[in-house]
Amino acid sequence: MSVSNSQINISRRQLFTRRKDADKPNLPWVKNQLFTDVCTQCGKCSNACPEKIIKSSDGGFPRVDFHQGECTFCYQCAEVCPEPLFHPKTEPAWQVKADISDACLAKRNVDCRSCGDSCEPQAIRFKLAVGVVAQPQIDIDSCTGCGACVSVCPTNAITIKNL
Length: 163
Ligand code: SF4
Ligand code: SF4
Ligand code: SF4
Description:
The protein is an alpha+beta fold. About 20% of the residues lie in helices and about 15% in strands. It has helices spanning about 5-20, 35-40, 45-50, 75-80, 115-120; strands spanning about 55, 60-65, 95-100, 125-130, 130-140, 160. Interacts with the cytoplasmic NapA precursor.
């Protein structure tokens, strides 16, 4: 059976998307090494999330989308999952952190502190500098990876990922 060019293009695109998303979080507390083998894509986690941030990602697997809101670490996604896919709530939810790209307005010398205002643990501090507006700096140890800073950023400069 011959494979068309469009099929090749689609599979290349899927591969690229998977690589691009490889360092982004799936769900809090999830056992990442089991995820694609054990998750049945039943959608119960997505329905249970009070913040409505769990979306169907590439391949149909659930993934948090911080453009819709933040994770409050309520553990409800883990509680409703019928599969043995989640670590106990007593363990850390995940190791992901916020990362600010060069698209940040402050890096272009435009005053903006929206992300800092939305960060409850105060992990984003603004450092004064000579000749430029205050620059955001993330305290990695304080960042919980909640994603509250993502949707408020006017230039989409923040990504939550494994650093
Ligand atoms: S812990 Fe709660 S807020 Fe976070 S993804 Fe799960 S259900 Fe949604
Ligand atoms: S909200 Fe976005 S543009 Fe504004 S300071 Fe934070 S990262 Fe930069
Ligand atoms: S992910 Fe949450 S804790 Fe981390 S910098 Fe953004 S708002 Fe603050």
